[in-house]
Each structure stands twice: as C-alpha cells, then as structure tokens.
Hints:
Elements: H1 2-8, H2 12-82, E1 85-92, E2 114-123, E3 128-138, E4 143-151
Antiparallel strand pairs: 1-2, 2-3, 3-4
Keywords: Coiled coil
Coiled coil: 42-72
Amino acid sequence: MGLLKFFNNLKPEHWIALVSAITAIVSAIKSQSSARKSRNIADEANRLALDANRLSEEANKQAKEANDISRRSRDISAFSYLSTFRVTLVYFDWPACGQPLFSNPTNVIEDGPSVEAMFKVENISTNDAYEVYLTSSDDDVDQKIDIGCRKFVNCIHQ
C-alpha cells in the first residue's frame, strides 16, 4: 500500500520527471543491448576477415604451386620435344681455331657466304632431316653471323 500511496501523492511535475527517468533507463538498457550486438557483429566481422585472409593466403600458395607445376610441365614438354632430335656436327671452320675440325663438305652452299659450321638435325620420329648452317660475311666494319636451314633430300639414319 505504501507504493500506491506514493504514486497517488505525486504532483504532475513529479510524474513527468518519473516518466523521463524510466524512459532514460529503458533507453540506456536498449543502448547497452545495441552496443553488445554491435560488438558481437564487429567480432564476427573480424573473424570473417581473418578467415578471408587465411583463405586468400592459401589460394595464393596454391596458385604459386600451380604455376610451378605448369613451368615444370613446360620444361618437361620442351625436353621431351627436343629429345626427338639428333644433332650431328658435320663441319666446323671457325677462323679463330686455325684449322677446320672437319673437311669442307661438298654440298656446302656455293657462291654464297663462307660456311663456318654446319649441323645435321634429324627428327627421329618423322625421319626428316635438315642442314643448319652458320655463315659469316666480312665487311670492313664487323663480321656478321647468320643462321640458315635447308632440308636434306635423301637422309639415311645411321
């Protein structure tokens, strides 16, 4: 009964103050609850950002591994391709060496630049063969080295 008597004896300005105080308390409770929810959301966002960073690092690591595998695969493929060829030195006459290592072949390009080296390149899988030759031309300024190629007509594998 004491509480009822208290409320009955309140003047109108006290009622306004009491309602304002209750409203402030309710508002503070709601703010605290909102702040707690905001903190929880921020914590979850931080956890998600950390997970995203970890996944990004893992993806970068896997991309690097894939690039390494791709590079190794290209290297193996290139080696496999090159291993189907047989290269034979047919002629070599470099001016700095003095004497030619091999005698001058009769099928060297005639009426052209001097042939310094010639290789026979055979594709073992197709039985095609090519002459690859290095030629040089002297002028007063510098010596030019060119690479030429022509197909062997009758190639017999040894």
